[in-house]
Specification:
Blueprint lengths: L9 H5 L10 E13 L2 E12 L5 E3 L5 E4 L8 E15 L2 E12 L1 H5 L9 E10 L2
Antiparallel strand pairs: 1-2, 2-5, 3-4, 5-6, 6-7
């Protein structure tokens, strides 16, 4: 799964949940790639997120403020995200990618949670890719 990144790829830099954007954020991350078989690549990601400015918002991948504590008392620990990506190479030109992702909300997300905004989140992707 060696790829030349011609365009910015948010999933690579900020995880597959798309909960965290490029504004007001720090991300400590690590990636592990395993070529488990000629037909399978396993990709594990871990991200630890924290806000740069406590009184500013948490922005999503689209640049929209999704959580905010103007007092700054919610802290800056956004949380930890773990991503497991399995890329099945069906043929030379087609792949199926399956991704399971989990965000464990930190103090900031817990303090700003509400009826329509939980602290934790999960997602599942199924992607078919055809190259030519």
């Amino acid at each position: 799964m060696k790829t030349a990144w011609q365009f910015p790829f948010g999933h690579h830099y900020f995880g597959w949940m798309d909960m965290v954007g490029r504004q007001n954020i720090h991300d400590l991350s690590t990636h592990l790639y395993l070529d488990a078989a000629p037909w399978l690549t396993v990709w594990l990601q871990y991200h630890h997120f924290w806000l740069d400015q406590r009184r500013d918002a948490l922005y999503n991948a689209g640049g929209i403020a999704i959580r905010r504590d103007p007092t700054g008392q919610a802290g800056n620990n956004v949380g930890d995200e773990i991503d497991l990506i399995l890329n099945f190479h069906l043929t030379r030109y087609s792949d199926v990618l399956v991704s399971y992702n989990k965000l464990y909300g930190g103090g900031f997300l817990e303090a700003t949670a509400g009826p329509n905004a939980a602290a934790d989140a999960e997602s599942l992707y199924l992607i078919f890719q055809q190259k030519w």
